[in-house]
Amino acid sequence: MATFSINKGIGRSAEFQGLKSQYLFMFAGGLLGLFILFVIMYMAGINQWFCIGFGVVSALVLVYGTFYLNKKFGEFGLMKWQARKNFPKFVISRKSFLKILKTKKAVEYEKYNEIGNA
User: Fold this and answer.
1) Quick check: is 66 in a domain?
2) Could you give the dihedral angle defined by the CA atoms of residues 47, 50, 55 and 56, in that order, rounded to the nearest 10 degrees?
3) Distance of alpha carbon 96 from alpha carbon 107, whole angstroms
4) For 36-61, what is the mean pLDDT?
């Protein structure tokens, strides 16, 4: 019986057979989801050979896709790629040009004068 080490040290991310952290959880969750889908299809009365074929092909696609993402993006690259979608392409400032140039004290002085004149 072969033994596999899951973690290689304190403070390092979980790794198993080359899959790191988030890909490991994606892989395990995908296989669990495929198993549940296989059981539901089999219990619904779908032909068993279709269920087996669907399960095998889906599992192979999941394995290939997970290892491909792990190789392409690395440990944190997928999170960075997803975060890029939420990052604005440019920042819009709706203040007038003169208000941008004014210092904080000048703005406070104007507010004080407006209150005193009222």
Assistant:
1) yes
2) 140
3) 13
4) 93
Domain membership of residue 61 as a residue range? 16-84
- Coil, strand or helix at 4: coil
Number of domains in the chain: 1
Residues 37-49 have a mean pLDDT of: 92
Burial class of 37 by CB neighbour count within 10 A (0 to 12, 13 to 18, 19+): middle
Element (H, E) at 40: helix 21-43
- What is the model's pTM? 0.55
Query: 78 exposed, middle or buried (CB, 10 Å; 0-12, 13-18, 19+)?
Result: middle
Given a cut of 80, is residue 96 above it in pLDDT? no
**Average pLDDT of every residue of the chain:** 77
Residue 5 maps to a domain: no
